[in-house]
Amino acid sequence: MTIDLYYINGSAPCRAVLLAAKALGIDLNLKYLDLMKGEHLTPEFIQINPQHTIPTLVDNGFVLWESRAIMAYLVSQYGKDDSLYPKDPKQRAVVDQRLYFDLGTLYARYAEYYYPVYFGSGTFEPAKLERIKEAFNFLNVFLENQEFAAGNNLTIADFALISTVSTFEASGFDISPYPNVLNWCKKVKTTAPGYEEANEKNLLVFKQMIEQIMKNK
């Protein structure tokens, strides 16, 4: 069985998929795409994924992109149980809500604040920083009186969110004003299988890239 993952190691969505694969004991065949060289825009890759986004999964001819969908698929297809993505409708709905919160709010607000500066000629806008703080306040409330993002068990929602939150940390955002987020971070970092290899090591690549970009501005 060969499962290909087209990825870049610094990407938060890619790191989330790597965390899910580690938790499931899946060895992915990693195919690095250098976005700076336009390798995601080649005719060969566009034929696989017309949106030319990463991560992109190819499992025996089955192609899927969008990291949260990929994680859900991997658990449903290869999980020994449903603990990472529960089949119970109410439990799954909470996991889905947290995933959508990461996609549409937390990660989106990271992108709108940092990316115009990192990858363009924009400046850090205070109003956008306030929106980030609001999102962290939401997450802090979600984590009240529970150990993980969607309850008291590790799920794929934790993989998505920790990839995003750690990216904020790598960019210098202080999470200490959010005690529930801070405690949850520490717990996920010590309990998620293969965290160091899947996220921390690759996060360092992202941090070094950003530091180099900012140095050259």
From TrEMBL:
Recorded GO molecular functions are: glutathione transferase activity
Record-given protein name: Uncharacterized protein
Q: Which InterPro entries match?
A: Glutathione-S-Trfase_C-like, Glutathione-S-Trfase_C_sf, Glutathione_S-Trfase, Glutathione_S-Trfase_N, GST_C, Thioredoxin-like_sf
Q: Which residues form the GST C-terminal domain?
A: 88-213
Classification via SUPFAM superfamilies: GST C-terminal domain-like, Thioredoxin-like
The family annotation for this protein states: Belongs to the GST superfamily.
Q: How does it assemble?
A: Homodimer.
Classification via Gene3D superfamilies: 1.20.1050.10, Glutaredoxin
